[in-house]
Design brief:
Layout lengths: L2 H10 L7 H9 L8 E6 L6 H12 L6 E7 L6 H17 L3 E7 L3 H12 L3 H6 L1
Parallel strand pairs: 1-2, 2-3
Helix pairs in contact: 2-3, 3-4
């Protein structure tokens, strides 16, 4: 399968992979870190380019967090090996600068998982207002 066919198939399922340069630009737009512990949820992670760019930014800032936690959802099983590699890369990059890193890849659809979780535990009315 050529690149054009893969892009067309990804487009058909609503999957658009962010170029690294765009991801780095987006990560640079966050305010400087002010937190000791940073938690990132990537609801449609793809290969993990967006969260990886932000982790890279956090690791290179003057005020680094003590820890970073990433939970990445991706329901395309073909891209999960690359996503796992990205998590490993982030863990290594954080380790080099003394940041504790925990990454979790969830090979499922974020929305479907959230609906199932809500059905299991119910909905807190106060939380619904925040969302």
């Amino acid at each position: 399968m050529n690149g054009r066919t893969q892009r067309a198939e990804r487009s058909d399922i609503g999957q658009f992979l962010t170029p690294v340069a765009i991801a780095r630009f987006m990560a640079s737009m966050f305010a400087p870190n002010q937190f000791d512990h940073v938690r990132i949820l990537d609801a449609g992670a793809g290969a993990g380019v967006l969260f990886s760019a932000y982790v890279e930014t956090l690791a290179s800032e003057g005020r680094r967090p003590i820890s970073i936690e990433v939970v990445a959802y991706e329901n395309d099983s073909d891209i999960l090996p690359e996503l796992n590699q990205t998590m490993t890369h982030c863990e290594a990059a954080c380790g080099k600068v003394g940041i504790a890193f925990h990454g979790e890849v969830r090979g499922e659809d974020f929305v479907a998982a959230a609906i199932a979780q809500t059905a299991l535990v119910g909905v807190n009315e106060e939380r619904m207002m925040i969302l």
